[in-house]
Amino acid sequence: MILTRRNLLRVVFDVNAVRTPKDTLVCVFLRGGADGLNLVVPFEEKAYYKLRPSLGIARPDQTSGDKGINLDGKFALNPKLAPMKELWDEKCLAIIHAAGSEDQTRSHFEAQDLMERASSLETGVSGGWLARHFQCQPAEDRTPLMAVGMGPSLPETLRGAPVAMALESFDEFHLGRNAGSQAALAAALDRLYGHADPDLARSGRQSLSVLDTLDKMRLQPYVPAGGAKYPEGEYGQNLLAVARLIKAGVGLEAATVDLNGWDSHFGQAVLIDGLQEQLAQGLAAFRKDLGAHLAHTTVVVMTEFGRRAYENTAFGTDHGRASCMFVMGGAVKGGRVIADWPGLEEGQLEEPGDLKVTTDYRDVLAEILAKRSGQSKLDKVFPGHEVKFRGVFA
Amino acid sequence: MRTVLTCEEFKASKGQKLKRPFRFVVSALRALGADTNASPALLRYLGAMGQSPFQHPTPDGYPDESMPWLGTMLWRWNFALALTTNNIGGTSVDLQRLGKAMGAPQDDPAPFFLRLVLGREALPIEKEAVAEYLKASPLDPYLKRSEAVGLMLASPGFQRC
Known about the structure:
The complex is a heterodimer.
Chain A: H1 5-18, E1 24-31, H2 36-39, E2 40-42, H3 46-51, E3 69-70, E4 75-77, H4 83-89, E5 93-100, H5 108-117, H6 129-135, E6 147-150, E7 165-167, H7 182-194, H8 198-219, H9 234-247, E8 254-260, H10 268-290, E9 297-303, E10 323-329, E11 336-338, E12 359-360, H11 361-372, H12 378-381
Parallel strand pairs in A: 1-8, 1-9, 5-11, 5-12, 6-7, 6-8
Antiparallel strand pairs in A: 2-4, 3-4, 5-10, 9-10
Chain B: H1 2-6, H2 8-12, H3 21-31, E1 35-36, H4 40-48, H5 73-84, E2 91-92, H6 95-101, H7 110-118, H8 124-136, H9 141-154, H10 156-159
Antiparallel strand pairs in B: 1-2
């Protein structure tokens, strides 16, 4: 076979065709430590209202004002997350509460790093947990657009992945800025990489095929399906881009999306009301836009730690321990809050006043990888952690 | 030292390793005598390739093997072409001046730059690929030559060290 660019692309896509379908896993990271007790309110806890006299979200049975949206008689959704109630009712959204890391650090950087690596400092593994997931897969299963980090730089979660790309927009990948010579450059690179050693040859081939795919996608204007309206801002645009990649069938297996700014030490409502709206509108739009593609998509929303159970004097909350996680997807056994609830009463809190972590976030991630991404080597992806599934999926 | 540096094994070990993004970027800047203020416009390429300066991850740093870096090719190409066509803010190259100063033939400087970038005599396939690009590209000669040097930095030969 003559190694033309076209032929190389064909090889890549043939490989694509015989692979078993896996979910696309979308990891949304709420950076800054999102307040789980504000997102999903344990309204049956008297202590909650004692600890948060001004920040507490009113019980759903309250007659007036901004009140929580009842989920299961024990937990309520923050009213700003209203668009997620539809997902809950559709039973494609599960909430895991009192979830977090075993590590006690309250430093954002350390906590985010550890969580993105899904390791403790002692086990000393480096690189992201998604990167290890991909490392554990056979090389021949790798396709160029299997892992994408939405944003200007590759997140720690994907650092070390054999194939992973930071992607800010579809427009930033092109061979040079001169449309006229792009074909000539592609042909030359095709030739050069076709004669390189196998590793570089594969990598070059994949990169050319990514360019080809993105070129094609750029040519077609995109209208989200079902009247989906993504919120303004990077987060919404990134979710839209992920939906586009999923629907284009380019072999996307994992994508990371960030929503930043959850560090609400003071004036919490001002800081995070808008973020909560963005979060919920984004997920609801993503779901609508995906339509039937939801069947092979799983979204997990996580944060590095929750916040203190009691509010501080500046109408904010300080760094705490457990928060909550959201998992949305076609295969999710949704409409449930999964929690080994530790309670908020004195003696139930972890010093100096934090919600205890009763579900290790790795258990949730591991269950997703095992049940939806075909990962059997969980001990390699989460070294030193004994995985316990929480029944997020049937 | 002489014994080590002149032995056959040492010679044979060249080109076995993949440059990590930092080395790739720095070696490209150095090969072309670029002028840079290391502004965010330049550093973002390192971020996109997963090797930002001063972000050395604990506990064991950036990986030493090639596999985790093989996914960065597209960004390397993007960088290479942006560099040689002067599209990175705060960073510039003057290829004409460089060629002149080093005695490159003015009518056809490509073979000179190919040798300069690769640090060795180019393989026939490398010469052909560059020549073909120069023939096929419709750009004006100046831009075409700039892109051709970008192509050399993007070529497999420049990824190895």
